[in-house]
Amino acid sequence: MSDNSINTIVDCVFDIFFESDYVAENFLNIISTIDDFEEIIKLPLHQIPDAIRKNDPNLKLQPLYEIRSSTNQEYKILLGDNTIGIAIHDKYSSWSKSFFPQIQKIFSLIFESKKIKTINRMGLRYVDFLEDENIFDTGKIKVDIDKIPATDKKMFLRIEDHVEQVSYNKVITNKTQHLTSSNTGSIVDIVTYIDTKPFILDDTFDKDDFFNDVDKLHNINKDKFKEVIDDERIRKYGL
């Protein structure tokens, strides 16, 4: 992931899981006031009856709507009864100048509506596609079998851990494809999240604390990416 125009990011999403006395439709009017997010698309999950969705933990936290803007086309908002997220697909430019300010704008308005009772989880996901590259050749992670390098094999490596109360999972694959290209390459998929520190949105709620944690998710996500790629790429991207 990078904070300049040269980057390999193909997907990025920040989202929260929350509890509320309201349903997704009650948030649509709020979202429509933000940068012309008025194009509402019902996702396939919307066709499943409420009683089934809300009693299935795998469905409860999935989005029902995708909301796009006519004037801010690089972003889309994902909305469900218990989740709200903002995503970028293949148009990422900057965290500090673009994505983070957009997160602050959207979630500040949502918090002001007082429709959310508790935030149980926040997460940030970056997916990087390194086209025409075998990350196990060029990056910092080396894999061998019986002391023989295994870079000629297709591999899937998953790492899970936590740092500074932030959990993460990192998935690295080589010799694979992404929808953005017809060529093969490597994918680095990193999710950083906090699910042990619920935010209760009462009179004591401080949105600055929330956004500080969001920024921490980004910093740790970037650090985990730097553990995978080579130092030349780190310098090139200004990480």
Tell me about this structure.
With 239 residues, the chain is an alpha+beta fold. It has one domain. Helix content is 28%, strand content 36%. The protein is built from seven helices and twelve strands. It has helices spanning 25-32, 50-55, 57-60, 95-112, 135-138, 207-226, 231-237; strands spanning 9-19, 37-42, 65-69, 75-79, 83-89, 118-131, 144-145, 148-149, 156-163, 166-177, 184-194, 199-200. The strands form two sheets. Strands 1, 2, 3, 4, 5, 6, 9, 10, 11 and 12 form a ten-stranded antiparallel sheet that branches. Helix 4 (95-112) runs antiparallel to helix 6. The longest helix is centred in the last third of the chain and has 20 residues, at 207-226. It is globular, with a radius of gyration of 19 Å.
Provide a quick synopsis of the model:
This protein is of the alpha+beta class and 239 residues long. 28% of the residues lie in helices and 36% in strands.
Number of helices: 7
Mean pLDDT score, rounded? 92
The sequence of SSEs as H and E is EHEHHEEEHEHEEEEEEHH
Approximate strand percentage: 35-45%
Structural category is: alpha+beta
Domain module count: 1
In total, how many beta strands?
12
Main beta-sheet annotation: 10 strands, antiparallel
End-to-end span in angstroms? Answer: 8 Å
What is the overall silhouette?
globular
Radius of gyration: 19 Å
